[in-house]
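Hello again,

I reread your note about wanting to compare the complex against the isolated chains. To keep things tidy I'm splitting this into two emails, and this first one only covers the full assembly. Below are the input lines as submitted, including protein chains and any nucleic acid or small-molecule components. They are followed by the predicted structure of everything together. The single-chain runs will come separately.
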Amino acid sequence: MAIKTEPFVINIGPVHPSTHGVFRMRATLDGEVILDMEPVFGYLHRGIEKLAEGRTYTQNIPFTDRLDYLASMSNNLAYVMAVEKLAGISIPERAEYLRVIMAELQRIASHLIGVGAFLNDCGAFMTPFLYMFREREKILDLFEMVCGQRLTYNYMRIGGVSQDIPEEFLPALDKFVRQMPSFIDEYDQLLAENEILLARAKGVGILPKELAISISASGPVLRGSGVKWDIRKADPYSVYDRFQFDIPIGSTGDTYDRYWVRIQEMRQSVRIIKQAMEQLPPGEVLTEVPHSLHPPVGEVYGHIEAPRGELGFYLVSDNSIAPYRFHVRPPTLINLTALRDMMIGWKIADAVIIFGSIDICLAEVDR
Amino acid sequence: MRFERYGIGVAKGMALTFKHLFRHPITTQYPEEKLTVSRRTRGNELVWDRGKCTGCATCAKSCPQGAIRIVTSVSTEENKYLVEKFEVDIGYCIFCGLCVESCPFDALFLSYDYERARYRRQELVMAKEGLLLSEKKQPSGYARPKVEATLPKQTLLLDRDKVKK
Amino acid sequence: MTIFNPSFSSVNHYSATLPPDWPGGFWLHWGVFVVIIFAFVMAMVMGFIYLERRGIGRFQVRLGPNRVGPFGVLQPVADAIKVLIKEDIVPAKGDKWVYWLAPVVAFVPALMIFAVVPFQDGALLADLNIGILYVVAISSVSVVGIFMAGWGSNNKYSLIGAMRAVAQVVSYEIPLVLSIIGVVLLTGALSMNKIVEAQTIPFILLQPLGFLIYFLAACAEINRTPFDLLEAESEIVAGFHVEYSGMKFALFYLTEYAEALAISAIITTLFLSGWRGPILPPFLWFLIKVFAVFCLIFWVRSTIPRLRIDQVMAFAWKCLLPLALINLFITGIQVIVWPEALPWAVVFLNLAIMAVLVVLWSKFFRLGGGRVEV
Amino acid sequence: MTLALSGEDVAAKLEPQFPGSIIESRGNNLLVKSESLFDLASFLKTAPGLDFDYLTSITAVDYYDYFEVVYHLTSIKHNHSLVVKTRCYGRDNPTVPSVVSLWRGADFQEREIYDLMGISFDGHPNLKRIFLWEGFQGHPLRKDYL
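Full-complex prediction:
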């Protein structure tokens, strides 16, 4: 006699330890196997695009901090670069280098969280997460030294950066840069070869190359699928064309490749910071920008390679002090498009790590 | 999926955690042990210098949240504005520091303190007496290089972490 | 109820081991020993909770709990008080009776195991001549409680957790028992006390593969990492006890650690020569070994990730079970062919056999599973 | 450096294929009629030499008289980019064709525009609100929503 079974629906989230915020996956399960999955967003929607239309260009910088709060510096950078492009402002050389240093430090910090949370989702009881928090803490200390805050930095300004670095910053950064590679080696030693992690992550949640391009994936998700596309190389902004670094790419596009790409990107970021420190010129860090900035009528799309992918700002100006339209291209929302394709047929345990390997930040997804 | 590595990967990971057993813990036991925050810390509340303030309200204009409220009146004998009301609703404040940066007379500072929890919401609205610069209310060096030079150096985890490489 | 019949052989044996000048009869001693063992288990569990939290804290370069009492030793007490005064929430649509009974059903077997654990020579509540069989029989009853909890909560997460628990515990029972039989073959007795007495050298050396299988299977039995699927806080939140709070949650928490203690004690008895040891008193030796085994368990917990359910099942059936059978076979041959062989030759032979088998299985064994076409 | 293709050049390539569908080409922008958007987009995606295989972003702007939907296209193969715009009129039910069948990355972005701007995408497989709940009145990003 055949046993009659029927699928059942389970809500993974909105309050769930592995949804990295308030995200809901409405999954239809057959036992442990996922038959269907529908993502539900919007629990953290704050209407930042609408809010920004009522504030001046400078006042919007703190709002960009609150998009992807794990990569505030990158958001700042993307936004101020878009505004500078719109208003035709050129910024001092030193500020460019400081921006690159901050953005790369932020990339390391963000990937530490991403990888740590991914390993935590795999079930490694907090240990890798806490090891990685330790290094992130050091980066946050550096950010705090520069701009006085540890999460919402609000450091970049239209025309440069808000303040020059204090004198103790460079020695501390140097120390950090010398320490960091050995810590990355430790992460590798901790779990990269671990049989259980390989069994869990290899071959799971494969995102084929063609699909990755078709869904407009970006960042480590796209590169994990084997597409050599990094905006720092493809469309060099700021002073990235002056640095030597490689783009690590994965081969199969599974969760392990995305994890591996993040680890390798941290090494490359350390390389970039080292070069930027050597080349850092003296001088001003902020050009004079009128207090109430009126960019000419027009529109601009500025994009950077944020830790989670291509972060773009589409701004339309009507020559007033506030943007007429302020649109964010959120990398993680678009990366989530393929979530259903990656998850179907896998088990709940896999669903959690596939979701973790995309490394999303809900504040950016919902805005 | 195979166990290709004969358990060496697990052994390596366990060796690493064992090594960490003998490392110095990085925990700070907060109320007893306090770290020195950054000299540019954007702590809770604002600090206001009544003598320098001219009542120009640039800070209120630059605030993205509209948390600063200024009411001024004209004083004819002294030929300047008198600040009648200077209120900051800390509940709205996002501590972005734009007001401090935009102040043309260096009359506004962010606070160096960070332990400013309140029990009631109305206590979060700071009127001008509560904001005044005093012994207890230390200004932070954010956007104020002169103040910054007087403050102690920040403690860094980089220096505390006793890992020799 | 034959077990309470004083004519039952173990009771006679027990009565015989009593010093004749002790006051009171059998039942008095029985009662006193039960209270002592209960107190011992509670104290040890608290020690375990403290040790694990501090130990994992240090593994994770944190301090761990250090606020309550000197070095935080009273932290488990504070936890217990906190949990006891919490609101007791029963799901409105849960199966009330099952929900209420589940923690008891889970906790009692964990406690019952200690009836046969020899703390030192003869110091055990009931020296059953089928001691180890009794342990095997009792220890897997807890899963009934876990399934009851999962079912009674009327929660999908807890039901998934409960299903996983049943599948996992039933599967791992087989390699667990088979690896015990190796030890029993060497000893020729099922009594726990006799097993300890037989270990002139610890059986971990004579039975390295058996120890490995037993350790892994026992980790799965007591739901420790990497087999903590039924709790899996990152997937199914807390599994079977997601709806439990207050006293009932405390019982589950207690069960988890009591089982860990029981398994540590049994590993000590079976493979680490129990209370035997030089210089120190036997009881202390026993405690030291139990704590060492437990440290190993939480060291593993602090390092490695969790397996997936199909991998866990494949590991039990495709890896542990054949290995356990081979181990049993080899042990049988050794016991029959060289009953009086030099122990050290056998030790090295068995270590070599274990290495070869582990390498072979790592090379050819496939975890299987993966994506299911839907 | 991603080469921003000139709108005029692309328009010259497209004009023989789609006569009259391009309203304006300026800078790297191409303003096209919404009726022919889908055919044009599929041509842009597949035509050799153009190969816009990557849809960077879609957004919409409310200009009171009309809504402008902006497509940022990139070619990973040739590393060049193009901005395609289309307009839709009327505030009750503005509609543009959906490009989800060409670039699946448009899925959530079109839903987002539908949710916040109120533009329907013809042919979208699952067009419903994404951030706000079903039954929410109005579309917040419109300029007349206060």
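For quick reference: Chain C touches chain A through 36 residues (CB under 8 Å).

B.
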